[in-house]
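wait is this the right file?? whatever heres the structure
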């Protein structure tokens, strides 16, 4: 008879492992794990006083006079205490057998919670409590409540943090002169106050993080981030890049053949980029411009400077539709001027791919436009001088680095990153402190304003009538849907269903469909028909989010607008308003709306300014989500708030600049000590 294997004991997770899960590995990690709120256990009031202040959180102390388990309306433990001034019931819905013994009659209990007047008189439901002896001393400081993880109780955290505070090296990393100049508290008393605030502390200033102790901690965190990013920028500048000094015949001829004049803002950013390209170290510039502000032509003129200087340029975009838009537009400008532009994407046939590889490697292709396919090992450039990355936040750090590493013999190509999601100033100063930023803050003339309306989807028939009327007037229409196939969980109208419904409702119109699962050639046939005004309505998923330019399209309907993020709604809306006709964007939503969805739709109705939209998006989502894939592993700010602490960002930036540019051993030691304390070996995450 086979012997059954012995039962293995349940694996217990050590406190160290639980702390490590929270990222708390060192004594300094623990010391900088600051409370999220506090409980005031510094005073006890009588039950009579607590009853007078019903609804407030208060702490009382009394003797257990009765202890019973009730079964109606559900099983619960009822503990009655008295202190001579009155009686109070403590009610526990979830309890252990040990608690029944612990709270036996005659026990003295200190309980803290919100006192309510229930059906059976005054009571506290699930109060915090402890069994005490008569005359037990009260704490002299507020009790910290820390961010915690599974199975990690507050007492365990408090004990671990308290012990770490005894062991840690409290040497202040900031010199006394700097602390005095900026009127900053010393670090040790500031951090100790945040862990153990005295009774008389301004509790409001603690909770809204405006207390001087918080200011010190936030400044230190911001300074570490600024030092790290600026040091990474200096390291990058120490690398060699080919100086692209020539603005020659191609640059002049390209400007001459453009069917429009550059705006003042385009001229300004082009001057900034051109100056960077002349340097012998790599340009690292972010070009921001609202939807339709003309970033593509600026990038083409930057590429022309590289080509005039004898080098190749590459432009990488995140989707095939966007890459192809760039390719068609730029090739139409450059090829008549004798510049060979190569096209490379994953969907090309093997023979076409090989032909592209050969042209790139031989240098015959002076400009290469494509998708992620440019990152493949097999792609070898003859002499890459400039890499341009569009919608750079869609690419991970590793991908952007791969393109940067395709320069010759250790020379790093200049890099221009483009984004139609404007980055608010404080965000640019913190998370993008290592980049130069250029902004196109002017739209080309002749653009029409876009009116935005939010409409309940129950009024879909009215919207279809509006689509029909617009088509009869010779206008074209986008109808955007969030999913391709039916999903029962989300119950969203799908692109295929919507296409069928609109084709049936509008039999006299040509209704097309484009989505991400179609083959590139099929997509292109549909897009070409829409661009040529052979199609009235284009039903699409978000593949049309960026880059599609059809000036005659002046009405956009966005289905289930409540499902989209703000920047995505703004990008989609930017597909209309590109011609002279008044344009309209209709946001179809499904009731009831959540609070965040309401805020988003309200923002879209109120403004078309990309920077204002970005600012509100940052408010709604916070920096972590807003930044997306800029970099995995980047230490987000834990304590500083970009909205309220912009003044501190300014100070930290100035101090970082001073510390890094003053060539003294003392200041160099300050930088090393400060980074070691705040980033503790995580600095490599910030170097890309």
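ok assuming it is, sequence goes like this
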């Amino acid at each position: 008879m086979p012997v059954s294997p012995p039962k293995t004991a349940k694996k217990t997770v050590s406190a160290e492992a639980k702390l490590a899960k929270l990222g708390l590995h060192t004594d300094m990690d623990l010391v900088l794990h600051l409370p999220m709120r506090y409980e005031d256990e510094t005073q006890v009031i009588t039950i009579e006083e607590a009853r007078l202040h019903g609804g407030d959180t208060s702490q009382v102390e009394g003797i257990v006079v009765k202890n019973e388990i009730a079964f109606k309306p559900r099983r619960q433990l009822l503990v009655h205490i008295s202190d001579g001034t009155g009686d109070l019931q403590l009610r526990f819905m979830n309890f252990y057998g040990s608690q029944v013994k612990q709270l036996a009659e005659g026990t003295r209990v200190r309980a803290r919670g919100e006192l309510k007047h229930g059906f059976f008189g005054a009571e506290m439901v699930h109060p915090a409590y402890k069994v005490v002896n008569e005359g037990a001393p009260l704490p002299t400081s507020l009790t910290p409540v820390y961010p915690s993880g599974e199975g990690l109780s507050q007492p365990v955290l408090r004990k671990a943090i308290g012990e770490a505070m005894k062991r840690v090296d409290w040497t202040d990393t900031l010199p006394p002169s700097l602390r005095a100049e900026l009127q900053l508290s010393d670090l040790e008393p500031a951090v100790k106050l945040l862990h153990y605030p005295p009774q008389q502390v301004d509790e409001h200033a603690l909770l809204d993080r405006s207390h001087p102790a918080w200011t010190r901690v936030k400044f230190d965190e911001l300074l570490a981030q600024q030092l790290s990013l600026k040091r990474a920028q200096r390291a990058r500048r120490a690398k060699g890049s080919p100086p692209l000094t020539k603005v020659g015949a191609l640059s002049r001829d390209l400007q001459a053949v453009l069917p429009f004049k550059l705006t003042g803002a385009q001229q300004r950013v082009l001057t900034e980029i051109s100056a960077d390209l002349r340097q012998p170290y790599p340009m690292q510039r972010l070009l921001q411009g609202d939807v339709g502000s003309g970033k593509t032509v600026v990038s083409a003129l930057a590429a022309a400077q590289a080509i005039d200087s004898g080098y190749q340029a590459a432009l990488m975009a995140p989707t095939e539709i966007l890459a192809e838009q760039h390719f068609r537009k730029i090739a139409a400008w450059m090829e008549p001027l004798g510049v060979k532009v190569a096209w490379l994407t994953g969907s090309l046939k093997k023979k076409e791919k090989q032909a592209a590889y050969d042209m790139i490697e031989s240098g015959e292709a002076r400009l290469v436009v494509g998708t992620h396919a440019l990152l493949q090992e097999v792609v070898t450039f003859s002499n890459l001088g400039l890499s341009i990355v569009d919608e750079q936040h869609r690419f991970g750090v590793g991908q952007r680095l791969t393109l940067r590493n395709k320069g010759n013999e250790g020379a790093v190509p200049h890099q221009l990153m483009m984004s139609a999601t404007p980055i608010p100033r404080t965000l640019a100063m913190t998370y993008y402190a290592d980049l130069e930023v250029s902004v196109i803050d002017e739209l080309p003339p002749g653009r029409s304003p876009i009116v935005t309306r939010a409409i309940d989807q129950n009024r879909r028939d009215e919207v279809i009538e509006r689509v029909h009327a617009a088509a009869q007037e010779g206008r074209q229409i986008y109808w955007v849907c969030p999913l391709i196939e039916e999903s029962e969980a989300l119950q969203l109208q799908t692109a295929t269903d919507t296409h069928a419904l609109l084709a049936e409702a509008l039999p006299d119109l040509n209704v097309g469909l484009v989505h991400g699962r179609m083959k590139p050639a099929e997509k292109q046939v549909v897009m070409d028909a829409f661009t040529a005004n052979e199609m009235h309505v284009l039903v699409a998923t978000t593949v049309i989010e960026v880059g599609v330019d059809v000036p005659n399209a002046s009405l956009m309907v966005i289905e289930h607008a409540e499902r989209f993020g703000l920047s995505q709604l703004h990008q989609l809306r930017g597909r209309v308003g590109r011609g002279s006709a008044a344009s309209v964007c209709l946001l179809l939503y499904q009731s009831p709306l959540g609070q965040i969805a309401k805020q988003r739709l309200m923002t879209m109705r109120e403004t078309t300014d990309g920077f204002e939209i970005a600012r509100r998006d940052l408010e709604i989502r916070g920096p972590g989500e807003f930044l997306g894939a800029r970099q995995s592993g980047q230490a987000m700010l834990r304590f500083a708030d970009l909205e309220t602490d912009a003044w501190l960002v300014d100070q930290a930036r100035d101090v970082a600049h001073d510390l890094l540019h003053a060539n003294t051993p003392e200041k160099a030691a300050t930088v090393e000590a400060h980074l070691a304390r705040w980033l503790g070996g995580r600095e490599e995450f910030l170097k890309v």
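Residues 39-145 form a domain with the OB fold (Dihydrolipoamide Acetyltransferase, E2P) fold (CATH 2.40.50.140). so i think its the right one actually
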